[in-house]
Design a protein that fits this description.
Elements: E1 2-15, E2 18-23, E3 26-32, H1 39-51, E4 55-56, E5 62-64, H2 66-69, E6 72-77, H3 99-117, E7 122-123, E8 130-145
Parallel strand pairs: 3-6, 6-7
Antiparallel strand pairs: 1-2, 1-3, 1-8, 4-5
Helix pairs in contact: 1-3
Length: 150
């Protein structure tokens, strides 16, 4: 799994002109699911995201997690995160999981993150043409790949 995590002061996802989900202070998570991903990837990634100390403490130092600040989360599926640009100029998406695997893993990820945060998470709609709006706070943007744990 690959995730782009952005600390936001607000974010929303709109589908067909209708706002599907919106959040205030918290995290926008763009999530790509690969065909080799499974429950271990979900568990590791949820723990990492819920524990990321990227929110300011009383001194303004990034020392608090989204859980500690009571922040929200919005998770949007994005198969293009699995792109390989190794050859040529047209990205290859052969590493991206098909719907039959990706949808259940995406839903399990959202459920696990919701449990870790102690609150519902906003979602997009898997496979839909979505418009994502955000106000990146900082800006703070973190990229995580469960197959390359750095």
């Amino acid at each position: 799994m690959r995730a782009v995590i952005q600390r936001v002061s607000s974010a929303s996802v709109t589908i067909g002109g209708v706002v599907r989900s919106s959040i205030g202070n918290g995290l926008l998570v763009l999530l790509g699911v690969g065909h080799e991903d499974g429950s271990d990837d979900i568990d590791w990634l949820v723990r990492k995201i819920a524990g990321l100390r990227i929110f300011g403490d009383e001194s303004g130092v990034m020392n608090r997690s989204v859980v500690e600040v009571g922040g929200d989360a919005l998770v949007v599926s994005q198969f293009t995160l699995m792109a390989s640009t190794r050859k040529g100029n047209r990205p290859s998406y052969i590493r991206a999981a098909g719907h039959e695997l990706a949808v259940p893993l995406y839903e399990a990820f959202c459920s696990s993150l919701s449990e870790a945060l102690g609150r519902p998470v906003g979602t997009g709609e898997f496979g839909a043409d979505m418009k994502v709006a955000l106000v990146n706070d900082g800006p703070v943007t973190i990229c995580i790949d469960t197959k390359n744990k750095e």
